[in-house]
């Protein structure tokens, strides 16, 4: 038997190596002779802090420097910020070129622990190296600041990026506008939108929804209508989102003539109404007790082959019961497929503006118990709601 020592930069492992099978004269080693093996109490996988102790200065080769990024990520993710800073200085003194993936994970780790000053320091230290990926590093820092809601640092980084001659592309511009919509005030959001328009970028659907939600939270429905008009109602790559938001801005204040006029314009412009479009009108008709318009809207849905959902049935049921016309309810329901399985396709923005009806809320409570009955049809839900509605109008005297 001979002892072979295998050493690396990270650990020292001592193994026993037997002779090859060509020396047949030596008998095979039995397991119970393990008392002759050279053992060590040091673990094979050492902790990161012990790695630095065993690393000699003359052994810092390319393999050791390649392990420093993972070591720095380990320190950052576990809150050892002093050690991570020391490791970063070692990386700067070496020939290390940071990759986009490494900087992205590093910035994300710092942002999760709200150590924004470390991100700024790393960004400034990368400036002196004239890297080709520097614009992407600025974009990563801006995204981290914005996603954390630190709009001040985000704006300062944007100004610094522009001052260095780097351009903001459409993707980053949409992200910046999204962060202002979510975390900023209406004035900040509108100011950012003005700068975005001057850049002639195309606003994406998720940013449109974020800005619309900002107006809806403040109940600024006139401003919501002006915003979607400014974006352009003729855009087809976002579906009916812009038209539905415009109709919703009128339905919120029950401006029925404007609502009908814009719906006709929508159809004439070549847009096909979806279930959200019809339900915005149906909810307004139901609240205003416009039964004839509600009937025509349901007939229009049938002609367009748009399947009604839970909101549509709720508008019909509540319109008749609120006016004590429950006996005439069958007249409308006979034209609808009440035995169909329940579904909900309406855009959640509608509920943010007009809320959920009583039938909708009551049905959601029943739909939670799917184990008791696998198929909840509209007929069953309407029957249960009618029973509940008539019971609450009765007075029970307890003596």
UniProtKB/TrEMBL annotation:
Domain of life where this protein originates: Eukaryota
Q: Please give the residue ranges the record annotates as the region Disordered.
A: 17-40
Is Cytoplasm among the key words of this record? no
Listed A to Z, the keywords are:
Repeat
- Comp. bias regions, Low complexity: 17-27
Q: Does the record bear Repeat in its keywords? A: yes
Name of the protein in question? PPR containing plant-like protein
What organism is listed for this UniProt entry?
Medicago truncatula
- What are the leading ranks of the lineage? Eukaryota, Viridiplantae, Streptophyta, Embryophyta, Tracheophyta
Name of encoding gene: 25479453
